[in-house]
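Good morning C.,

I know you're traveling, so I'll keep this short. The sequence:
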Amino acid sequence: RVGHTGTLDPAATGLLILCLGPATRLSEYLTGLDKVYDGGMRFGVATDSYDMDGTVLEENDVPEDLTIEAIQAICDKYVGDILQAPPMVSAVKVGGERLYKKARKGEVVEREPRPVHVDEFTVLGYEPPLATFRVACTRGTYVRSLCHDVGEEIGCGATLNTLRRTHVGRHCVDNAATIDDLETPEDVLDALVPLGEALDLPFVVIRPGRRQMVSSGSALGMGDIVEKCPVSDGWVQVKSERGELLALAQVERGPEVRLNPRRVFIGDRK
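The tokens, ready to paste straight into the viewer:
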């Protein structure tokens, strides 16, 4: 089995994490990780999709006095917790139908703004009419919408010109394999990241002799782990002393914190 953890727009490049075999059960925890993108936006052009793959709606002159400092000042407004309406050309469902399907029929509908968080929106360079930038954001953020909104504020319009995803959580594109690298099963094995190194979740280490408890899904107490549990609620990784991922457990509050294994991986190994 193979599953991906978040699509890219057709013209975008960069990091895509694939989960194989037992790791497909980790995909939901990887999909929600924060992401970093490097991109470019072209001023003076507005399209229906907010990127250069769309239909051009208008073209305008770019202000001659526009500076990188002025662009950055506007980008700064979109750092932090913001509400963002998805573009019409997107996979978001409205009324049970994907927005891009409505757009293909010429429909334009109201889109409910959704909360997203932008940690960074930095302008890296500006050579009219193109600006390069870096965005660090949460899942569900549309970078092309950020470009569109910046262009609206400047008054000349802007659209996403290029986009490359460089990070998903702590995973970096510099450490990724290209499709051309994966010609044989051995190539795939060499590129695999161990389950125990895949997630950004806190973890606990079980004491010797507790593997059977984990494999059977039995709740773990504080006496079953080497050190105190680092969190009082949420999910934790349960690992062996060798760093092997044995399970994902939910932390249960009470007189004593208990760890309930919900995703067990011991039985998945030969």
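Safe travels,
E.
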